[in-house]
Structures are given as C-alpha cells and as structure tokens.
Amino acid sequence: MAISAVIPPRIIAPLFGDTIFIPAIPSATVCWIIILREPCTNELGGNSWNGFEHNVFYLNLPGEGFVNVAFLLGVSHEFDSRVVVGADFDADGRPDLLVAQLSAKIRGSSELLHVIKNNWETSGNWIGIRLRGRHGISPLGAVVKLKAGDKTFVQPVITGDSLRSQHPAIVHFGLGDLKTVETLEINWGNGKTTRIGNPKVNQYHLAQPK
What we know:
210 residues; mainly beta; Immunoglobulin-like; five-stranded antiparallel β-sheet; globular
C-alpha cells in the first residue's frame, strides 16, 4: 500500500479497512507512520477474518518516501489492532504508542494493551507543550504556533481522532538541528492568546489561558 509523504501530520483515518497514525511532528521531520490492520470479527465463532495480517510501520526517508520497517523494529504484530494512542509516556521527548489488541469471543470481547516504547536514538532537538484549560475553556481545538528563525510550525490540538480513545492535550514538535525557539503561541478556543518567549528546548512547557 503506497502512502504519500504529503499527508499532513497526525491523521487517524480509515483507508481500505486500516487505521493510519502519523505523529504530531512537523512534516519535514515526520519519522514514522503506523498502520493498524482492523479486521472484522465473527462474534459467533470468535474468529478474525484477517487476523494474521501484519501491522506495518513506515519510516520516513526525507525526500524519498516511506519504507516499512515493522519487522525490523519488532512491531509487525499479527493480532487484531483497533485502538492506537500516540503519547510520550515517559516524557523523554520521543513519542510512544499504545495499541489495543482485540480478542473476540462468543460472548463479548476483551482487549489487551500494548505499550510500544520509542527507543530510537537521535541527536535532534524537540519541544513540547502541555495544555491545561480553565473553567469554560478547553485545550481541545487550540492551535499552537512555533517560530524558530525563518521557520514556523503550526499544530492544532486534536484528541478525538482515534477509535474509542483520546490523546493527551500535549503538542510535540521535532526540531531537528534547531537549537533555539523564539516563541510559542497558543490560540485558545475563546480567542485568547498565550505567548511563551524563548522557551527552552528538549523539555515540556505548561500553557494555560488566563
């Protein structure tokens, strides 16, 4: 299955029965895409119609496209995958994944959670923003803009785009070789704006509307 590199960051959408997850990193530095196979299940017999189809995990080769490295990284699972959440669970600046394994039974179903830890070694810099709302102001729908030199990155806070799951209200930017950030600007849903000047890289910052 061919996936175009021009797909914008962080999309989870059905495509020929699959779920696509692209991390919330600027498109120039998107490092991977995971596609979870979403088979139908036979509730009467507890059988999966394509349960032996492997998940795929695409690595971005800038300017060249994506290559499937799921087997090499040990994530080409055969189990029925439905839910995927991208979050930096250990706060080390490298987004991890949580994947739910669905096991169909004659009566009901059960799920097993798999945490896929990101141990990819990189010298690139990053910065993260934890958004916390106030009474009547939700972080959902806020837009975060990062300015570094002549580059500007923009990411909306989207959390309801995965099946039966919710991402945390955290925005992560991969900076690559950039060592400094001039400003972080958060535009909240009520029209208010929060600005953070000269934030330190390689750490998370808390943003809350006044």
